[in-house]
Amino acid sequence: MSATDTPPRPAGQDDVLRWVGARTALDATRDEVEALDATPGVATFRNELDLLQRRLVADPRAFRDLFIADGMAAVAWEFRQPELGRDFVVRLWDMLLRDDDVSTLLMRFVWDLPLGKKRLFIKAVDAHLSERYPMLKGLSTGWPAESTIQPYVREADDRAEDFGLVNKGFLGYMDLGYTRREVDLLVWLEAIRDKQCSDAPCELGVFLEAHKPPKYGCPVKIHIPTMMELIGTGRFQEALELLQSCNPLPNVTGRVCPQELQCQAACLHKTSMQIGQLEWFLPERDKLVNPGADAARFSSFPNPWTMAAKPPVAIVGSGPSGLINAYLLAAEGFPVTVFEAFHELGGVLRYGIPEFRLPNQLIDDVVRKIRLLGGRFVTNFVVGKTASLQDLRDAGFWKIFVGTGAGLPMFMNVPGEHLLNVMSANEFLTRVNLMHADWESTETPLPFVQGKNVLVIGGGNTAMDAARTSRRLGGHVTLVYRRTRAEMPARVEELEHALEEGIGLLPLRSPSEFLGDGNTGFVKAATLDVMELGEPDASGRRRPLSTGRTEQVEADLVIMALGNSSNPIIKDSEPRIDVSKWGTINLAASGTQETTLEGVYSGGDATRGGSTAINAAGDGQAAAREIIGDVDVPFADVKRMVKAAHAYTDMAASDAVILAKRNLSPGIEELVVRAPVVARSAQAGQFVRVFPRLGGELIPLTLADWDAEAGTVCLVVQAMGVSSIEMNAMEPGDVLAGIAGPLGRPSELHRYPDDETVVFTAGGLGLPPVYPIMREHLRLGNHVTLIAGFRTKDLMFWTADGERVAALQAEFGDRIEVVYATNDGSYGVEGFVTKPLQEMLEAGRKIAEVVTIGPPLMMRGVSDLTKPFGVRTVASLNSIMVDATGMCGACMVPVVIDDKLVRKHACIDGPEIDSHLIDWDKFLPRFGLFKAQEQEARTRHGL
User: Fold this and answer.
1) Is residue 565 within 8 Å of residue 553, measured between CB atoms?
2) What 3-state DSSP class applies to 547?
3) How far apart are CA 326 and CA 334, in angstroms?
4) ∠ Cα 751 919 703 (to 5°)
5) What would the 3-class secondary structure string for 139-207 be?
6) Residues in domain FAD-binding FR-type (predicted)?
7) What is the DSSP letter of 756?
8) pLDDT per residue over 738-784, tens digit each?
9) I need a surface site. Which of 188, 392, 554, 885 has the fewest CB within 10 A?
């Protein structure tokens, strides 16, 4: 090694030297830091840093907000450029899709932009996102006044084959693979079109003159501009809460309300805002975002019946006016009971509107909310029959709201209207919508539609519903309307959908006669008058005038959709209520929903005649506000009233249990059924509507007897069709799905001279309905002659010692005379009941009147026999019925008055009708209307 060579360092010496150097530097730095710590500047910095640390612990978002502020400054810079670039718009949209605080801030930023900058944004969205979202293509053209994002509507060829929802709204785009958040943004883009008009014409309407109601506007007073602002600033939940505070059923009314004639008609945009679509989007969105939200929302509401802090209210009818009334009152702590005539809730919303327009689930949603608020429901309860309004007041209810809807369907009274398969739209839609007659699993019959020529007469929304329903059932459907398409009162959307689905339109045509098959009694063609338009009528539309020309078209089914007249049940049961000349309930004064009967309120079609669901909802809302502000009941009385009303509700809602059963003769069973409210009101001559089981059909059965104290009714059922056979197979302890009544008018009873007799001809199953009428005449002091006919002695019942007829003989002695007739002569007089009746007539026996009940041909025979003798004769007609309250018009009875053929209805005008007025040739074929369908059902069940 040379003297100049450096000896090698021990291993690790370099690390040691580096450590010594770093330590020296650290000591120097520590000294410097300690020296700087004492300076004022560093002390101030340390204090500020400590303050920031404490702030971040208390509010972690604050640090993020610093960066958001910088980001928003960058966004604002972009919006100051002449146009928005693709990269920026895509990034911005992706940030909006995050559905977090940042996206909400961006939504508010865009909402607050001046109109010019919003147009810049929409132009960029159109240019850079429409490939991803085809519904945005062309959005910037004429935006915001003329351009809108349309909701998702299913293609006509697809939707015309089923009952699935047609207009699926904005959320329908999820069917195409878009996410819920993407749909949120589509709705947001629609909301930012809003002008935020200071006078809010969409909500308040357009004021025309002082002291006159505004035109257009929202009948339920939804705060539309505020709702738009909340959506436009990303506050969807707050928008829903605002909406539901005004209208608890927005996803119902939003679908069926004619927005184009209400809120959207007042919109200042050339292409109006999609207000209705946004209204029903909000609650449907909430189901996706917050499943079970209703239960949580209402969990803090105490049960009004338990609290008993406010007096109870009865709501008559569960249509739109009744439901909104019940909801608002229950939400304010009022105990409410809703009384519904049908076995299902919803009124016209359920039986009148097909599910392709309004899914039943949405009605169920509203009902569920009312139940969560403590509201109660009683079905199969016909106010005016089951109980009067006064009965409800006596039962403890403080106030009553009547929302019974319209009533009897209108017909044209043209020749041939009595033919089979000429029916009202109410009946047709009820059979399909409520009774699901189109399902193989149900028993309600429906006219054959598949491949048939169907004419729907009318141009309103009901006509569209009937036509589109018929199309879905396979019919070849044509709308017949006496004016042009431009004058049709149906919603434009509904008419367009109908035409898209292949439904034909015959404008300027009006039926003058229906032609029938002489062998079957079914309609086969219609003669149509060719019309032209004259001068405008009271509605402002040009009056249709006949040209004198006619044409004939084939028709296998004719559905009359001409509107409704008022149902007389409430009016007839409560004469203290004033009604108009049209039968609608008069209100006490302008600006109130109270009727002329204090404490009774009304709204919807019951007061307006034919109107809309949203107007009905507005009336129900207005009535609720009046009731809420009118509590003047002492607290002690409130407790008593709530207790009484609760007990009455329990009784009315009790199950229709079969308590006893007895076989009377082959195929005929006597059932004793618990029905306390029916038994309380029953009168001789009335009947009930029985719903044996879910999936069955509604059967009218005459009340054979009742016991008001025991709360029971007696029914006698003959096994004929599937439903009656199934009913007769039920046993004590089984529960009927529903029993409604008593229905129809009770028998007219008069005290006759002692030398006259009231004759009853009862054929077969006619004896049970004859029995209570006969008993009342006897109690009145009249002499009675019963002529009871059976096919053979083995089929006789109620005739043995100790049974009903014998008991009457024992009680009333010689004031009752009984004659039995059997077809085969095995007991009593051989032959029909007409034989002893004829002998009485020819012998000159003084007969006050004849009541005939039994097989239709027998009743006609009796009527024909008594007519030449001038003896008053009434026939009790158990005709074809669906609802049995006058709504459907199915139980049409053709009668001749002053040489003119008119319609009566067995369930409203009867069941007892002057038999000498009945056109039996036209009436009798009606009993064969569904003969083929009933045979198919029996075969399907192996019966």
Assistant:
1) no
2) strand
3) 9
4) 50
5) CCCCCCCCCCCCCCECCHHHHCCCCCCCECCHHHHHHHCCCHHHHHHHHHHHHCCCCCCCCCHHHHCEC
6) 651-749
7) -
8) 999 999 999 999 999 999 999 999 998 999 999 999 999 999 999 99
9) 554
Rounded to a whole number of angstroms, the CA Rg of the chain reads 37
pLDDT at position 52 over 60? no
329-339 pLDDT tens trace: 999 999 999 99
Under the phi-then-psi rule, with left for phi > 0, alpha for psi from -120 to 50, and beta for the rest, what region is 650?
alpha
DSSP characters over 789-813? EESSGGG--S-STTSHHHHHHHHHG
Contact call for residues 402 and 606 (beta carbons, < 8 A): yes
- What residue spans of 290-424 are helical by DSSP H? 293-298, 304-307, 320-331, 348-351, 360-372, 389-394
For residue 100, give the 3-state DSSP assignment.
coil
**Residue pointed to by tokens 């930012």:** 192
| SS3 assignment for 603-630 | CCHHHHCCCCHHHHHHHHHHHHHHHHCC
pLDDT of 49 reads 58
pLDDT in tens, 776-804: 999 999 999 999 999 999 999 999 888 99
| Cα–Cα distance for residue pair 326/314, rounded to 1 Å | 9
Q: How far apart are CA 181 and CA 185, in angstroms?
A: 6
Distance CA 856, CA 859 (A): 5
User: What's the pTM?
Assistant: 0.89
Q: What is the C-alpha separation between 390 and 597, in angstroms, rounded?
A: 10
Q: How far apart are the first and last CA of the chain?
A: 125
Among residues 537, 555, 554, which one has the least CA distance to residue 545?
Answer: 537
Q: Which of 236, 220, 281 is nearest to 255 (CA)?
A: 281
- Strand-pairing partners, residue 662, are 670
DSSP state, residue 248:
S
Q: How far apart are CA 892 and CA 905, in angstroms?
A: 5
Average pLDDT of the chain?
A: 91
d(Cα 8, Cα 748) in Å, to the nearest integer? 135
Lowest mean pLDDT among 14-28, 390-404, 612-626: 14-28
**DSSP assignment letter at 528:** E
Length of the chain: 943
Q: How far is 920 from 282, CA to CA, in rounded Å?
A: 56
Three-state secondary structure string covering 464-503? HHHHHHHHHCCCEEEEECCCCHHHCCCCHHHHHHHHHCCC
Taking the CA atoms of 822, 824, 827 and 828 in sequence, report the sign of the dihedral they define.
positive
620 in Cβ contact with 324 (< 8 Å): yes
| Residue 663 CB coordination number (10 Å) | 11
- Do the strands 892-897 and 816-822 form a parallel or antiparallel pair, or are they unpaired? unpaired
CA distance 805 to 334: 50
Nearest to 426 by CA among 460, 455, 463, 452: 463
Residue linked to tokens 């944004």 = 121
Look at the alpha carbons of 612, 618, 624, 627 in this order and tell me if their dihedral is positive or negative: negative
Determine contact, residues 715/803, Cβ cutoff 8 Å.
no
The 10 Å CB-count burial string (b at 16+, else e) for 889-925 is bbbbbbbeeeeeeebbbbbbbbbbbebbbbebebbeb
Half-sphere exposure of 295 (CA within 13 A, CB side): 4
Q: How far is residue 882's CA from residue 929's CA, in Å, rounded to a whole number?
A: 13
Beta bridge partners of 453: 476
Q: CA–CA distance from 141 to each of 111, 125, 153, 197, 414 (Å)?
A: 19, 12, 22, 22, 53
Give the separation between CA 235 and CA 215, rounded to whole angstroms.
30
Conformational region of residue 186, where left means phi above 0, alpha means psi within -120 to 50, and beta covers everything else? alpha
Buried b (16+ CB within 10 A) or exposed e, 614-636: bbbbbbbbbbbbebbeeeeeeee
